Amino acid sequence: MLDQAHRLREIASFERRKRLGDTTRHSRRISVTSGKGGVGKSNFALNFALTAAALNKKTLLIDADTNLANIDILTGVSPKFNLSHVLAGLKNCREILLEGPSGIAILPAASGAIEAAFDEGIASDSIISDLNSLEEDYDLVIFDTGAGVSRNVMDFLLISDTIVLVTTPEPTAITDAYAIVKLASAERIDLDIQVLVNFASGKHEALEVYDRLSSVISHFLSTEVHFLGFIPRDPMLEKAVSMQEPLMRLFPKSASATQIKFITRKLIQPGAPISSEPLGFLGSLFKRRK
């Protein structure tokens, strides 16, 4: 757990800025998503978070997959409490935070917890404020969303500054990636969508996948996507998953780890977009639902 006194100072600082009218959000939100499961989305989200932390970015990884949350499995940690305990008023958000590898913070979600907050009205103003203040402590907030095009996934995508859309060379993965872009761009035309091709044989195949996807998007939709990079098929990554240890800790010099480092630097480079939305992430979700 992170130092309580430091947290109290951070909250006081945020409240002071609010009184002075400075509610500009300084953290950056990045959603990692995919049209279908099994494309390596959560693995990338975790190793991206670890790499960003190694580059001195204070990083919060939120397990936003309310159906198949698995960040705890990938890291080998077992959360005793999760977001449902916060929404029930039994814990505050800092009491459920897990200290992950390399100093990242992990916010474990619970199946249906956020949905219940909206649908049943169980999230009080104090709980929302508690969750929102958490964002102020970090440079980078990473949402590991669920796969597919559910309402919950769309909510996280539409409050993000950047969307990392993970796909593979499989035709079904490309088709499902298109569905994500189609639905999200129908609600926000200014989305920063970065395409990451996983399990590629090399850059040439990855660019072929990106070209196929982007050409269809540019033809049928009023938006565009950008090529972020690729991650090759790597037995070291599979080994790390089976050992329940992050790739960046076990095999930091592997081919896939090298690509993740390159991609991370692209994503966190100075001048990356941050929206003017002053609300914390949960406040932004509630505002969108209303």
Estimate the helix proportion, in percent.
40-55%
Total domain count? 1
Unreliable runs: 1-14
Reported for the largest beta sheet, the result is:
8 strands, mixed
User: What name goes with the CATH superfamily?
Assistant: P-loop containing nucleotide triphosphate hydrolases
Specify Rg, calculated over alpha carbons: 18 Å
Neighbour order of strands in the largest sheet: 3-4-2-5-1-6-7-8
Can you tell me the overall shape?
globular
Q: Return the CATH architecture.
A: 3-Layer(aba) Sandwich
What's the mean pLDDT score?
Answer: 81
- How many individual β-strands? 8
Oligomer status = single chain
Order of helices and strands: HEHEHHHEEHHEHEHEHEHHHH
Compute the separation of the termini in Å: 34 Å
Structure description:
The protein is of the alpha/beta class and 290 residues long. It has one domain: Rossmann fold (3-Layer(aba) Sandwich). Helix content is 48%, strand content 16%. The protein has 14 helices and eight strands. It has an eight-stranded mixed β-sheet with strand order 3-4-2-5-1-6-7-8, with helices on both faces. Strand 7, helix 10 and strand 8 form a beta-alpha-beta unit. Helix 2 packs across helix 13. The two termini are 34 Å apart. The N terminus is likely disordered.
